[in-house]
Amino acid sequence: MKRQIISILKWKQLMVNWMLLCVVAVASLTCQKAVGQAQATQNLQQEKWKAGVASVVITPEQSMWMSGYAARTKPSEGKVHDLHAKALALQDAQGTRLVIAAVELLGIPRPLRDWLEKEVQRCYKLPPEALLLNASHTHCGPVVRESKYSIYGNSFYGLSAEQMQQNQQYVDALRQKLLKLIGQAIENLAPARLGYTHARAGFAMNRRAKIERGYRISPNPDGPVDHDVPVLRIDGLDGKLRAILFGYACHNTTLSFYKFCGDYAGFAQQYLEEAHPGATAFFIAGCGGDQNPYPRGNLEYCMQHGRSLANAVEAALLPRARSVRGPIRAALETVTLEFAEPPSRQHLEKEAKSTNKYERRHAEALLEELEQKGGIRTTYPYLVQVVQFGSDLTMVALAGEVVVDYSLRLKAELAAPHVWVAGYSNDVFGYLPSVRVLKEGGYEGGGAMRYTQLPGPFAPSVEKQVIDKVHKLVDRVRASKSN
Ligand SMILES: [Zn+2]
Q1: Which of 98, 166, 376, 407 is 20 to 30 A (C-alpha) from 37?
Q2: How far is the CA of 14 from the centre of ligand 1 (A)?
Q3: How far is the CA of 140 from the centre of ligand 1 (A)?
């Protein structure tokens, strides 16, 4: 009897096991089917990409005042090589588009971004979040004048009326060139494959060195850096490399002379395009607000840094790139950043008598604002953009001269297969310090504000506000990709 019960129990156990096996097998089959379907969808996403590239020379045709250094005393004298604006248009399987435009200029003035955003929507039905602009921050490009007191303005560089007019003509022509360029990239859309890879380059060094009282711009081998070189490769279905988008977090300030030049990023693009005929190389400036290329000061170093970066990209191209699938989901929003308490009228009146002409000019501009508007601005409308490529790559594009803490923090926090953080995007108004840099002070912490029309350092809330906005947008684009 006991034996019989055991036997029945065994038989029951066998049945349960068998049923469990069946359930597992069915689940596994269903699972395999689901995986297969997901794989097929992903393959479809990969197969259905379209990409288009276009490039245009934006070197001024005549001698012009150059941007980046206040110490220059005369206009440009020729060029080392041409400056370019390049556009990469991408279209996913659903027909969603994204255009990344990279310009070899010191910055992108907000009015230029606003104008272009409106025009590309009108002309090409491209929504604002689908337009990502990035400036290489070369200090050997023309002044792009946009506002009276800004770093691009005549007050800063002391330009004559004639030079101002010349700048305005350059900006007007640049706007039209960029609009046409974006249209051409869209027109050139053709089937393509996208892949992500990366490598490292070591010539960027932190440039905030501690001195007895505060910080000054000088090589600091112990300061934080981001030596990552992210690369997005675009191949045609024939296997030919068509575009290489690569980034690096470092100022384009090897040079400070009187010839137009894209600095190390210009050379890196030139070397890559020479090595890969038919491919267009795009440089995307990273969070290099507090990073300089060292050593610096002559063309030889500049070419060496360019070679070093191009070699890093070549190294990144050696292993098989990770496939980047769609869909594209993009978001662009403004976060209202707060400035610290504005300086008082008395303080400004004192500074307006300063022997430092930039301090004086800055105080005069703020006094004028106080006079005309009854107060000094207390906030800045800061642009944050996020682009999600399927579940493979997250791109964050931040405005201003972003210090390296942001890319290091975001890459650690966003926990995705790959995160690419760009600075100098959409609106280059001045520096975006982290709380650390803000507290330490120095040039990037607030000192550089005197070269803009902005009142002074940001409030300590600056980092949290920007990071919170990035997380909000990333959550949104990642959630919507599965819809
Ligand atoms: Zn800078």
Answers
A1: 98
A2: 73
A3: 12
